[in-house]
Design a protein that fits this description.
With 214 residues, this protein is of the alpha/beta class. The chain is built from 6 helices and 7 strands. Strands 1-3-4-2-5-6-7 form a 7-stranded mixed sheet, sandwiched between helices. Strand 3 (80-85) and strand 4 (89-93) form a beta hairpin.
């Protein structure tokens, strides 16, 4: 099942709204593990195929237009970008994956950084894997899921661009994805649907994120 407003109290939704309407500042871009900030706050990482709508979702969550740069050019995010949300948690924007036009060396570098980060970050609470609702899970998504299983990092599937896939198509996606998630030890069984354009599922996702920091 997806997370709905009924899964949270009005107080939880309001506290999440206040948190995400406060300061959210870019800290640094990490290209090597030696650059990682101190393990001082809980971290939630966002991963997804290039052009899945990750930047747009981060901007919608924080009510900003320029927190994470949006672009029609896949592969723009090439490092771990750290944001400090109100001194409560770190949001980590991970490199996009699955884009064939970057060099093999660059893809290998990104994969090595992600694997090392996932294995050695005690403050990492969960990874949100963003999946385009128009296309469903791709082979590159499954590869990341396997990496998270191997590194014992919990993860959730967050569907994006749901304004372009409604009703019956969402139900079909649930029916296709749920059996896959059951085969992956570190995956949560539920799926959350969002639309950054229509603000659909955003307030519930804020509350979910806040739950990892309280």
């Amino acid at each position: 099942m997806s997370v709905s407003a009924e899964d949270y109290t009005a107080d939880q939704l309001e506290k999440a709204r206040v948190l995400f309407s406060g300061p959210c500042d870019f800290m640094l871009g990490v290209a090597a593990l030696s650059q990682l900030p101190e393990d001082s706050l809980p971290e939630i990482a966002f991963a997804g195929r290039s052009n899945v709508g990750k930047s747009s979702l981060l901007n919608a969550l924080t009510g900003r237009n320029t927190l994470a740069r949006t672009s029609n050019t896949p592969g723009r995010t090439q490092q771990l970008n750290y944001f400090n949300l109100g001194g409560v948690m770190h949001i980590v924007d991970m490199p996009g994956y699955g884009y064939a036009k970057v060099s093999k060396t660059q893809r290998d570098d990104w994969n090595a950084l992600m694997r090392a980060y996932l294995r050695g970050r005690p403050s990492l609470r969960v990874v949100f894997i963003l999946v385009d609702s128009r296309h469903g899970l791709k082979d590159s998504d499954i590869e990341i899921m396997k990496m998270l299983d191997e590194t014992a990092v919990s993860y959730r599937i967050i569907m994006t661009k749901c304004d372009k896939a409604r009703g019956a198509q969402q139900e079909m996606l649930r029916e296709k994805i749920h059996p896959v998630l059951k085969k992956h030890a570190a995956a949560y069984p539920d799926i959350h649907f969002t639309s950054a354009v229509k603000d659909y599922g955003i307030k519930e996702l804020r509350a979910l994120m806040r739950s990892y920091a309280v």
